[in-house]
């Protein structure tokens, strides 16, 4: 198991370097001058622009800029914005909010997917199975901003069960409504995946062998069938977690959540390229770490994977 973990960790290093290099060259290699764009029509003297470019090393070749940026990341220094704020301080304020939002949403999605997907597979072809498939298709078809406004109006304004917006108070309890919306928005596809994986597992020879050995249904379903069906579900959950961390911008905007998505959108509008690159780099780190954890979970769920060369 130790060799398997070490091999997966070593594979992460080139992925991280390649992804961050691609992001940096795509953002800073775009045509135009981000420093001049900050001032709009009222341009300062050229000497002032050159001084600002030198401060952010924008007068150096892109390779030198990227190397300096990479060394800063290794020291947990993500640089400063054009307004003088530390990017790490902005991340310190916004990243925990989005992380709490994504964790709540993924827990809601995971529990619903497992419970509803497994029961739909066990009752395949019944009215319950057809009803859950229709509900899942509705959640897949409805855009996320529609779900946000519907939940905000009925659950918060009409029924008063939740706060309609989050704002500065963004503890775990304040994020339940946007988390429910995000959780239901991604649960539908996960539920269908769980259902199909369970149906495929139920038809395997080793399930019939387990029954023929005298094992009860209460033993075969959760221990053998469900565990084997969790492998694609773990992959899907990890992908959804990355999507929620990166793609919760619309939900954060509607519910006024002061998270990473809102901040990144504002940085793009203001042409704050250091903030954009640093935030996207953090997203890459999250994706890489989540996929590393998924690979390790594969080894626990299916021991055969640990011995594949």
Pairing-aware structural class of the strands and helices?
A: mainly alpha
Alpha carbon gyration radius? 24 Å
Mean pLDDT: 77
How many beta-strand elements?
Answer: 0
Q: Could you give the distance between the termini?
A: 13 Å
Give the count of helical stretches.
13
Helix content: over 70%
Described by strand count, sense and barrel closure, the largest sheet is: none
Shape: globular
**Segments where pLDDT lies below 50 for 5+ residues?**
none
The portion of residues forming beta strands comes to under 5%
The helix-strand sequence is: HHHHHHHHHHHHH
Features:
309 residues; mainly alpha; 13 helices; globular
Describe the overall structure.
The protein has 309 residues and is mainly alpha-helical. The chain is built from 13 helices and no strands. It is globular, with a radius of gyration of 24 Å.
Sum this structure up briefly.
Helices cover 75% and strands 0% of the residues.
Helices and strands in order:
Elements lengths: L1 H27 L5 H6 L6 H10 L6 H13 L12 H36 L4 H15 L2 H15 L17 H27 L2 H8 L4 H31 L1 H6 L5 H10 L3 H29 L8
Helix pairs in contact: 1-13, 5-6, 5-8, 5-10, 6-8, 7-8, 8-10, 10-13, 12-13
């Amino acid at each position: 198991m130790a060799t398997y973990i070490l091999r997966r960790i070593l594979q992460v290093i080139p992925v991280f370097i390649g992804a961050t290099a691609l992001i940096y060259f795509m953002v800073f290699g775009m045509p135009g001058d981000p420093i001049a764009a900050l001032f709009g029509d009222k341009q300062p003297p050229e000497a002032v622009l050159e001084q600002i470019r030198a401060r952010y090393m924008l007068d150096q070749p892109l390779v030198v800029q990227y190397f300096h940026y990479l060394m800063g990341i290794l020291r947990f220094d993500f640089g400063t914005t054009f307004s003088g704020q530390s990017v790490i301080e902005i991340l310190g304020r916004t990243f925990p909010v989005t992380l709490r939002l994504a964790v709540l949403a993924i827990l809601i999605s995971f529990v619903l997917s497992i419970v509803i997907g497994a029961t739909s597979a066990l009752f395949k072809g019944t009215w319950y199975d057809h009803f859950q498939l229709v509900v899942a298709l509705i959640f897949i078809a409805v855009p996320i901003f529609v779900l946000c406004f519907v939940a905000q109006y009925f659950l918060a304004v009409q029924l008063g069960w939740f706060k309609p917006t989050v704002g500065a108070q963004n503890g775990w309890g304040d994020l339940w409504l946007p988390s429910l919306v995000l959780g239901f928005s991604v649960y539908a596809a996960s539920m269908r995946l769980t259902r199909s994986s369970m149906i495929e597992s139920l038809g395997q020879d080793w399930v019939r062998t387990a029954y023929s050995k005298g094992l009860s249904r209460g033993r075969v379903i959760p221990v053998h069938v469900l565990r084997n069906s969790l492998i694609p579900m773990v992959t899907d959950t990890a992908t959804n977690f990355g999507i929620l961390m990166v793609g919760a911008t619309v939900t954060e905007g509607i519910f006024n959540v002061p998270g990473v998505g809102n901040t990144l959108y504002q940085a793009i509008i203001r042409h704050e390229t250091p903030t954009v690159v640093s935030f996207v780099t953090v997203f890459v780190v999250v994706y890489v770490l989540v996929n590393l954890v998924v690979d390790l979970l594969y080894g626990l769920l299916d021991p055969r994977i640990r011995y594949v060369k």
